[in-house]
């Protein structure tokens, strides 16, 4: 039997970030995942990437994780350009305006997982169980038992579900879920551009959905996230690589020159999920298990990391006070604060999607005027970029 104060199910970046954040806590941790955790990076950039903001970078540095990222695969972006297709609406942000060296970093998800794993594996208070499946969960007054499919048993006081959008832990807890089909499919790929990206993150809003070009470490490689309505996405996915590249060039309005597709194209439907309850006695959920949002602002990973850091802070304080950290009443403040942040982000993404969707002339005029006004007023612009950087 394995015994620990906390069992974290899900060893992606959020679950690992929680474990790493508990490095100084007088708490024992078991980390469980259904697959291997650390994996070698492929020669070509991984398809799943995240834009990590400055606030989370700072925390990851303090945790000794940032220093172990593969620096050759790390890409800072110093500018953000956002515009409305076939319109005068445009806004641009730069690190120079903020007095910083960069606005954020594009990181391959597996690269961050590997760096977190490297540090967590050296913690004496953490035991990892990769390639392990949970067969059954049994909850009691002060203890939760996880029956594993290899006939082993894990006993813990607090079970943390960090196991993604289709969280088995959330389903087990029967937490009520609000969800909405965005009606969009995200197409993800790596592309090569004739013109260097110049460390600029680009996003163009088309009538059928937004397209983001995220700069990678190679000056001519970008990761794309093209969110399109489902019918348009199906049509794009049916195209050959060369025709898909031409469609990209049209959508981005030739901003980076000729484009070539350098990878397979991955796609997935986009759904908003919001768990109306995040905790009960002995159980809490965080990250995508608690919320998923539209990727148009690139804030999903940042929101999940902030959940992990906030939960770790609460648990450390409760443990230091010798309080019953596994009881729901002790974690209510954490739940209220993080649910509030999730709701605000969900509402903001829905507002952006509604405002920038469609090509009605009046909507395009409103968007254009709004973007140009924001670009011309430093205080408004700074508020936007400060929030994007996580401050």
TrEMBL record:
Pfam families, per the entry: FAD_binding_3
Coiled coil feature spans: none
Cofactor: FAD
Domain annotation FAD-binding: ranges: 4-339
Pathway: Cofactor biosynthesis; ubiquinone biosynthesis
SUPFAM superfamilies for the chain: FAD/NAD(P)-binding domain
Keywords: FAD, Flavoprotein, Monooxygenase, Oxidoreductase
GO MF annotations in UniProt: monooxygenase activity
Protein origin, superkingdom: Bacteria
Family membership: Belongs to the UbiH/COQ6 family.
NCBIfam families from the UniProt entry: Ubi-OHases (TIGR01988)
Protein name: FAD-dependent monooxygenase
Species for this entry: Alteromonas oceani
């Amino acid at each position: 039997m394995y015994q620990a104060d906390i069992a974290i199910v899900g060893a992606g970046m959020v679950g690992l970030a929680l474990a790493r954040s508990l490095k100084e806590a007088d708490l024992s941790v078991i980390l469980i995942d259904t697959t291997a955790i650390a994996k070698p990076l492929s020669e070509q950039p991984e398809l799943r990437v995240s834009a990590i903001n400055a606030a989370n970078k700072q925390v990851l540095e303090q945790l000794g994780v940032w220093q172990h990222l593969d620096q050759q695969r790390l890409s800072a972006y110093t500018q953000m350009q956002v515009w409305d297709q076939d319109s005068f609406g445009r806004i641009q942000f730069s690190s120079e305006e903020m007095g910083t060296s960069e606005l954020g970093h594009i990181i391959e998800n597996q690269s961050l997982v590997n760096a977190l794993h490297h540090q967590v594996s050296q913690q004496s208070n953490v035991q990892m169980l990769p390639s392990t499946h949970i067969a059954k969960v049994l909850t009691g007054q002060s203890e939760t038992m996880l029956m594993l499919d290899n006939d082993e048993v894990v006993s813990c006081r607090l079970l943390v579900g960090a196991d993604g959008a289709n969280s088995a832990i959330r389903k087990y807890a029967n937490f009520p879920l609000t969800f909405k089909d965005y009606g969009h499919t995200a197409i993800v790929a790596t592309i090569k551009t004739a013109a260097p990206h110049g460390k600029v993150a680009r996003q163009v809003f088309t009538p059928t959905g937004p397209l983001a070009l995220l700069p990678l470490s190679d000056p001519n490689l970008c990761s794309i996230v093209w969110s399109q309505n489902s019918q348009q996405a199906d049509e794009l996915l049916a195209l050959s690589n060369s025709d898909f590249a031409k469609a990209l060039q049209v959508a981005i309005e030739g901003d980076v020159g000729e484009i070539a597709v350098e990878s397979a194209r991955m796609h997935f439907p986009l759904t908003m999920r919001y768990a109306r309850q995040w905790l009960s006695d002995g159980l809490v959920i965080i990250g995508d298990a608690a919320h998923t949002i539209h990727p148009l602002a690139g804030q999903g990973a940042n929101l999940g990391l902030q959940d992990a850091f906030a939960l770790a802070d609460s648990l450390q304080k409760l443990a230091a006070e010798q309080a019953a950290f596994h009881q729901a009443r002790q974690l209510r403040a954490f739940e209220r604060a993080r649910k509030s942040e999730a709701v605000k982000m969900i509402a903001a993404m829905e507002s952006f999607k509604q405002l920038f969707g469609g090509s009605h002339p009046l909507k395009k005029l409103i968007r254009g005027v709004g973007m140009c006004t924001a670009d011309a007023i430093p205080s408004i612009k700074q508020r936007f970029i400060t929030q994007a950087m996580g401050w």
